[in-house]
Design a protein that fits this description.
The complex is a heterodimer of chains A (about 400) and B (about 475).
Chain A lengths: L3 E3 L10 H17 L1 H5 L12 E6 L15 E3 L11 E4 L20 E6 H10 L13 E5 L3 E6 L9 H16 L19 E5 L2 E14 L6 H19 L4 E9 L3 E4 L1 H6 L8 H15 L6 E8 L8 H14 L2 E7 L11 H5 L7 E6 L5 H16 L1
Parallel strand pairs in A: 9-10, 9-12, 12-13, 13-14
Antiparallel strand pairs in A: 2-5, 6-9, 7-8, 10-11
Helix pairs in contact in A: 7-8
Chain B lengths: L4 H18 L6 E6 L1 H9 L10 H15 L9 E3 L4 E6 L4 H20 L11 H17 L4 H15 L14 H12 L31 H8 L5 H22 L1 H17 L5 H14 L9 H17 L11 H12 L2 H8 L2 H7 L2 E6 L2 E7 L5 H11 L8 E8 L4 E6 L8 H15 L3 E7 L2 E8 L2 E6 L3
Parallel strand pairs in B: 1-3, 7-8
Antiparallel strand pairs in B: 2-3, 4-5, 6-7, 8-9, 9-10
Helix pairs in contact in B: 1-4, 2-3, 4-10, 4-11, 5-6, 5-9, 6-9, 6-17, 8-9, 10-12, 12-13, 14-16
Classes of the chains: A alpha/beta (about 400), B alpha+beta (about 475).
């Protein structure tokens, strides 16, 4: 009796390759199924594209009938110091560390996988199955990109004379005429006009499609952090969506209470205003900015307004009027009412009021919790879809 | 790095010589040298050179590779499969000492596979070919344009969830329905009693011979295969394949502690008598202690098994340096135990209060969110600890669930029963697994069990999962 030894294979086998591909495809489709939950997570919103995030997904786990955490498990090695009643550890709950979700639901199995935010967003929008949006005919601006070299010419500016090329041309002519370069009798062959070679440059005309996203938010006293977070998630999605469809996208932040101001992103989400709300002020400001910088013929305009629905009654007619004006100029205009559940406070609603607006590119959505963000976003975009068909 | 095969062969000769002298009785042994990636590959497929494709193996590969790459987990030194000839893998990247240790360890497993009774029905000479045949059949279904990978996975996913729900004792034959009927009929007949006249007559209870199954059936996959009339042939074949592969692994699950302990016991004896050069000997001790160190709070089967084998031998032979070449009472005792026990019976028979104390065993349970020690290895506690261990080792870690009625309420619904032994099912997993059962059965399935101390019926039908409390 003695063993048989087989040497190492020349080419290492990678036998699990096929099964790995299958597994990854499953992970991907599982992400797709849970995208609404994932995208609502704080760790995703606002992150740049190449960041790797861990996303909890459900579904790839393999299930069996198993025992739960029951009494009567046995361990070893703690020695004689161990006494009855000693606490030796804490149960690990699945999904811990995700505030507000999953934490104390037994039986929900989270399996984590790492994906790129960029990829996540791609998956997300694949899911929408949107046709390519119809771009505004004139909204493609002709931008002159920098000039490029393109071949040689016989005529041109003196500064663009290519001396090397010119000398070569002269030598070629010399050869044709005299055979091999002879000893110069006098030898000199002067440059001829035909020898001259100039670098040629052309200017390339680039067509660009531009879009601008207007994030309009009510920053009055009643907009607390949760509400701002929900708004932010929505704006983030909108930006990502638009950025995927246009060459260049600009974002304009308009914050309003009674008056509206254009602000930076940072101010937009951090600034707390006090006082009441004139929704129309935000719309008027947006209209001003559009008139000023983003002509609707040249820009695809997306505007979205988040508010908690409080508005001074006297302002409402103005708001409707301004909203209608905004619908005229923009591709898509939406109003999102942020009313977190359990806020204990249900004030007036603008959704009812905005029912009167009869424009097919206008949509109102109600966002009560972060899980609503993705469905609302889909509803919002459905307007656009109808529009483009 | 490349191993010196000739050097390994020389060690192998000396190892097998010792193994023979110690009384080990092995299948022919083959070693295949591989690198760490191939090793991970073999691990994902439980060492089988050929296995049917399924994404779960890809998942397990990725998981192990991640752990390995991040240094969270090393690779096992040894990977050996129960077949005849037995097949084991050696990693080319490992040191000479580690490979020699592995070889010695592998012969221990080999002997165990060949001689332990739980393996007697595994037909090791057909292991590789049957796994290969399974792989070919599954591949042929995947490639069949009328079936395809999605439908195959649809069945396999569900079948995997139920694969461990089968009889644990492979020596008991699964009776066909007509034999069960015969047995139930005979059992119902009055006993032949010569003193019939003076005994009160037992009331005759008519057996329900039309019930399916007549006796509760623990083989869920086989039951579904045999009694779901809407399954296609290929679907039935997939269920058979998954069942058969699970059956192959059950003896290994049932003898984990004994088997690892046995292999460690013999590698220790062999390596200690191999007259290794000092530096190899030192390295061996380091590896040996690493493998056999207790894992506080958990159970290390290597450590537990080794300690018990050593204890049994020494209880006969005393603490004197042992010579295993001699056929002594101690050697005889361990050889008998390795043949006739499985983990549960092994522990029940040999784990005594002394061993419990030496191993520092304790029992723990949960209290709110804490793990709390409930028993320690003292005079009052050790038997309780042994009892807890005996019920939870091997297949004891898998709930027993049987088909009670395959035509429940005359609607071809399936009723399963959980043999409750004080341990409750994890409800989330039960829900999903019941969903898979429904997928395979095609009609409503229910499971009677105990949740939070109450008798509950979990059911799954076209409307999804539901629970209801059973009337007391």
């Amino acid at each position: 009796m003695s063993g048989l030894f087989r040497p190492k294979r020349e080419v290492p086998a990678d036998r699990s390759a096929g099964d790995r591909i299958r597994h990854r495809a499953k992970v991907r489709s599982s992400i797709r199924e849970n995208i609404a939950d994932i995208i609502a997570d704080e760790s995703i919103i606002g992150r740049s594209g190449n960041r790797i995030v861990k996303v909890p997904i459900r579904g790839i786990k393999e299930y069996r009938f198993v025992y739960g955490n029951n009494d009567g498990q046995v361990g070893e090695g703690a020695g004689e110091d161990t006494q009855r009643g000693d606490v030796i550890g804490k149960q690990q709950k699945p999904g811990q560390g995700q505030p507000g979700e999953g934490g104390d639901e037994p039986g929900v199995d989270y399996y984590e996988t790492e994906v790129n935010v960029e990829e996540l967003i791609t998956i997300m929008f694949e899911d929408l199955e949107l046709p390519d949006m119809e771009r505004k005919q004139h909204a493609a601006i002709e931008t002159i990109k920098q000039t490029r070299r393109k071949g040689y010419r016989h005529v041109g500016l003196r500064v663009r004379l290519d001396r090397r090329k010119t000398v070569k041309e002269k030598l070629r002519r010399q050869r044709v005429r005299h055979g091999a370069p002879s000893e110069r009798s006098d030898g000199r062959l002067p440059f001829h006009e035909k020898d001259l070679r100039y670098k040629h440059r052309t200017t390339e005309i680039h067509r660009e499609s531009n879009a601008v996203v207007f994030c309009i938010m009510d920053t009055s006293g009643s907009m607390d952090t949760t509400k701002k977070y929900l708004s932010r998630s929505f704006f983030y999605l909108l930006y990502q969506f638009v950025a995927r469809r246009y060459d260049s996208v600009e974002v304009v932040f308009v914050a309003h209470d009674i008056e509206a101001k254009e602000v930076t992103e940072e101010e937009f989400f951090s600034k707390g205003e006090a006082g009441g709300t004139f929704v129309s002020s935000g719309y008027q400001k947006t209209l001003e900015i559009i008139a000023d910088r983003y002509h609707p013929d040249l820009w695809n305009i997306y505007a979205f307004h988040c508010s908690d629905g409080d508005n001074f009654g006297s302002d409402t007619p103005n708001a409707i009027k301004a909203a209608q004006d905004l619908c005229e100029v923009s591709n898509l205009f939406g109003y999102g009412e942020i009313k977190p559940r359990g806020a204990g406070y249900y004030g007036s609603s603008l959704i009812e009021t905005f029912r009167k607006i009869d424009a097919k590119n206008f949509q109102t959505v109600l966002i009560e919790r972060k899980e609503d963000i993705w469905p609302s976003f889909k509803t919002f975009l459905s307007r656009d879809r109808e529009d483009s068909q | 790095m490349n191993v010196d095969l000739d050097q390994l062969k020389r060690y192998d000769e000396r190892i097998t010589e010792l193994a023979l002298a110690y009384g080990l009785d092995c299948f022919a042994q083959e070693f295949e040298v591989c690198d760490h990636n191939e090793m991970l590959g073999y691990m994902a497929y439980s060492g089988m050179p050929s296995r049917y494709p399924h994404w779960s193996y890809g998942k397990s590969f990725e998981k192990m590779k991640t752990l390995y790459d991040h240094g969270a987990q090393g690779l096992p030194y040894e990977m050996v499969i129960n077949s005849n000839p037995s097949l084991a893998y050696l990693m080319g990247d490992n040191s000479l000492c580690l490979n020699v240790l592995t070889i010695a360890h592998v012969y221990g497993h080999n002997d165990f596979f060949k001689n332990n009774f739980t393996f007697s029905h595994t037909r090791p000479e057909f292991t590789l070919s049957s796994f290969k045949s399974h792989a070919e059949r599954v591949r042929s279904y995947v490639e069949d344009p009328s079936i395809g990978v999605d439908r195959v996975e649809y069945i396999l996913d569900a079948a995997h969830a139920l694969s461990m729900q089968c009889t644990r004792n492979m020596t008991v034959r699964r009776l066909p329905q007509d034999e069960q009927r015969q047995r139930a009929f005979e059992a119902s007949l009055p006993k032949d009693d010569p003193n019939r006249t003076i005994h009160t007559q037992r009331e005759y209870i008519e057996p329900d011979l039309r019930r399916i199954p007549i006796e509760p059936d623990a083989n869920l996959l086989l039951f579904i295969r045999d009694y779901n009339p809407f399954l296609m042939d290929w679907e039935k074949d997939l269920l058979t394949i998954v069942h058969e592969e699970a059956q192959y692994f059950i003896p290994q699950i049932e003898t984990k502690i004994m088997n690892e302990g046995w292999a460690s016991y013999w590698h220790y004896q062999i390596m200690s008598n191999l007259e290794l050069p000092p530096e190899l000997r030192l390295e061996f001790m380091v590896h040996h202690n690493q493998v056999l160190r207790p894992h506080p709070g958990e159970l290390n089967p290597y450590h537990l098994g080794f300690t018990i084998w050593d204890y049994i031998y020494k209880s006969y032979e005393g603490d004197e340096p042992a010579d295993h070449r001699k056929d002594t009472a101690g050697r005889d005792a361990i050889y008998q135990a390795r043949e006739s026990e499985r983990d549960s019976s092994f522990l029940r028979r040999f784990l005594n209060d002394d061993l419990c104390r030496r191993l520092g065993l304790f029992e723990f349970g949960t209290n709110k969110n804490d793990y709390v020690v409930t028993e320690i290895a003292d005079e009052q506690g050790w038997q309780q600890i042994r009892e807890a261990l005996v019920t939870s080792v091997g297949m004891g870690s898998i709930p027993i669930i049987k088909v009670i009625d395959g035509d429940h309420e005359g609607k071809r619904h399936i009723l399963l029963g959980h043999s409750f032994d004080g341990r409750e099912l994890e409800l989330g997993q039960a829900e999903k697994t019941l969903g898979y059962t429904y997928r395979l059965w095609g009609r409503s399935v229910s499971l009677d069990t105990t949740i939070n101390g109450k008798d509950m019926r979990l059911s799954y039908d076209e409307e999804g999962f539901a629970t209801s409390e059973m009337a007391a």
